[in-house]
């Protein structure tokens, strides 16, 4: 394997063996350094990073086992191979339990040492790559990467800060594409469980017949096609966090099992009588109005109140128009770097089109639009022609002269007010029915009714023009 001059520390008080090992490893292309005691090894490890330590078990000032323990504590990324002239199965087992990669006995055979070093360094490279990937994930899913200047998102960030370090269940609601998955990962990264697994399950993407097996696992022969035992997602998330997206699509039978897991942290795999206890924090999300689903009898009331401990309602991007430019520039920086494109910004004309779009696909749609523009755009700035046809068509929509100079929020308020009033009147002021017809949550409808001063009394005094 390419060794790119890996640093290796050899620890042995026998100078003949020490020099022999250094000579052999230098001939193999490595960068070995030798010391004669545990104290010298500790000093060397403190002053320089080593990919591998090869140490004798018997040292003049202690044992290789003690040095191994210290290395695993202070330098966990460094691989260790133990060497002894008096090998036994018990000592080999103890060494492996303490974290040694391998255990060799003297006299050392060149081929055995060569193979052990190659494998240990390969493990070291994988460990380093794992640390790097974990660090990258932590950076990507930090709460600070969720970009917004909307006051409602500010309150959501504050709420996440308050509950992230607990094990409380969090329910996120809002339309698809508003960033529920990213917020779930941000909660996990800020929690004490951040170094454990984060397991995401899209309940709506799996057939009902397979979802229970996916979550809880199954035993061989429990159903047609179950040719072997399978570990479920809950067990995979043991010690970490499980995120159940689109929970509103789950069947009544599965809801019963979920309720038990949430209350007792126990379940049985499909086809098994064995009860498994699991320690996993549960985060959930739904793009459906679960309170309405309860009223319609499609979602269990007891499960709804069990998962609705802390609720986070994410507003659609259409209600956060001040975030469009902010998010667009944020995604521009990300995808310019990822795809190695030299993009310096977004032109005024293109930004105007982005802000006039109603974003039915929310933040996810905006992200996809910007990535597409980064890939296809020829100019250093994103131009209108780099945007999808639907957005370019907005350029041909002329604005009435009397509307120029008015705030966008004011321009949208009157037609929005009329739409809400029409829906309320059509439903005879049944707010739940009006919310469904407008495809918004009842909470969103209540807030807008208060904002526009729409009450039942208003309907009794409204004019025909309204």
**CATH level-3 fold name of the largest domain:** Rossmann fold
In which order are the strands of the major sheet placed?
2-1-3-6-7
The helix-and-strand class reads: alpha/beta
Portion of residues within helices: 40-55%
Calculate Rg over CA atoms: 31 Å
Oligomer: single chain
CATH A-level architecture of the largest domain: 3-Layer(aba) Sandwich
Give the overall shape, derived from the CA principal axes: elongated
User: Can you tell me the CATH superfamily of the largest domain?
Assistant: P-loop containing nucleotide triphosphate hydrolases
Mean pLDDT across residues: 85
Termini gap: 78 Å
So what's the CATH class of the largest domain? Alpha Beta
Share of β-strand residues: 5-15%
Question: pLDDT under 50 segments (min length 5)?
Answer: 457-466
Q: How many distinct domains? A: 4
For the largest beta-sheet, the strand count, sense and barrel status come to: 5 strands, parallel
Q: Tally of extended strands? A: 16
Q: What is the count of DSSP helices, taking H or I runs of 4+ residues?
A: 20
Keywords:
single chain; 466 residues; alpha/beta; Rossmann fold; Helicase, Ruva Protein, domain 3; 4 domains; five-stranded parallel sheet; 20 helices; disordered C terminus
Describe this structure in words.
With 466 residues, this protein is of the alpha/beta class. The protein has four domains: 7-137, Response regulator (Rossmann fold, 3-Layer(aba) Sandwich); 143-315, P-loop containing nucleotide triphosphate hydrolases (Rossmann fold), CATH 3.40.50.300; 318-397, Helicase, Ruva Protein, domain 3 (Orthogonal Bundle); 408-461, Arc Repressor Mutant, subunit A, CATH 1.10.10. Helix content is 48%, strand content 13%. It has 20 helices and 16 strands. The strands form five sheets. Strands 2-1-3-6-7 form a five-stranded parallel beta sheet, sandwiched between helices. Helix 10 (252-264) crosses helix 12 (301-307) and helix 13 packs across helix 15. The longest helix is centred in the N-terminal third of the chain and has 31 residues, at 110-140. It starts with 6 loop residues before the first strand and ends in a 5-residue tail after the last helix. The relative contact order is 0.07. Residues 457-466 have low confidence and may be disordered.
């Amino acid at each position: 394997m390419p060794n790119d001059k890996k640093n290796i520390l050899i620890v042995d008080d026998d100078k003949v063996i020490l020099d022999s090992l250094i000579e052999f490893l230098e001939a193999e292309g490595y960068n070995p350094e030798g010391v004669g005691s545990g104290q010298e090894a500790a000093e060397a490890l403190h002053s320089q990073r080593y990919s591998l330590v090869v140490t004798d078990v018997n040292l003049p000032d202690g044992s290789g086992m003690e040095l191994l323990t210290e290395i695993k504590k202070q330098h966990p990324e460094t691989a260790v191979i133990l060497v002894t002239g008096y090998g036994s199965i018990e000592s080999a087992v103890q060494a492996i339990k303490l974290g040694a990669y391998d255990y060799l006995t003297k006299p050392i055979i060149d081929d055995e040492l060569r193979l052990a070093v190659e494998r240990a360094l390969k493990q070291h490279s994988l460990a380093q790559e794992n640390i790097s990937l974990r660090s990258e994930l932590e950076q990507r899913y930090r709460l600070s990467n969720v970009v917004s200047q909307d006051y409602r998102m500010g309150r959501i960030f504050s709420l996440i800060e308050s509950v992230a370090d607990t094990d409380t269940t969090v329910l996120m609601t809002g339309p698809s594409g508003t960033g529920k998955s990213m917020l779930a990962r941000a909660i996990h990264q800020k929690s004490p469980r951040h170094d454990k697994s984060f397991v995401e399950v899209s309940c709506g993407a799996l057939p009902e017949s397979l979802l229970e097996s996916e979550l809880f696992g199954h035993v061989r022969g429990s159903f047609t096609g179950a040719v072997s035992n399978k570990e479920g997602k809950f067990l995979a998330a043991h010690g970490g966090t499980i995120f159940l997206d689109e929970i509103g699509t789950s069947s009544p039978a599965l809801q019963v099992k979920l309720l038990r897991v949430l209350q007792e942290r126990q379940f049985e795999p499909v086809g098994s009588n064995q009860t498994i206890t699991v320690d996993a924090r549960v985060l959930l999300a739904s793009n459906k109005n679960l309170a309405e689903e309860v009223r319609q009898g499609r979602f269990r009331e007891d499960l709804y109140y069990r998962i609705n401990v802390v609720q986070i309602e994410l507003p659609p991007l259409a209600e956060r128009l001040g975030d469009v430019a902010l998010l667009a520039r944020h995604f521009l920086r990300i995808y310019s770097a990822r795809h190695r494109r030299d993009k310096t910004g977004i032109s005024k004309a293109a930004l105007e089109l982005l802000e006039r779009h109603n974003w039915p696909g929310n933040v996810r749609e905006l992200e996809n639009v910007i990535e597409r523009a980064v890939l296809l755009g020829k100019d250093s700035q994103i131009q209108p022609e780099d945007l999808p046809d639907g957005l370019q068509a907005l350029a041909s929509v002329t604005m009435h002269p009397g509307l120029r100079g008015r705030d966008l929020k004011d321009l949208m308020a009157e037609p929005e007010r009329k739409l809400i009033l029409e829906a309320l009147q059509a439903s005879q002021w049944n707010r739940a029915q009006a919310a469904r017809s407008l495809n918004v949550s009842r909470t969103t409808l209540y807030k807008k009714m208060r904002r526009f001063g729409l009450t039942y009394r208003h309907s009794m005094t409204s004019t025909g023009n309204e």
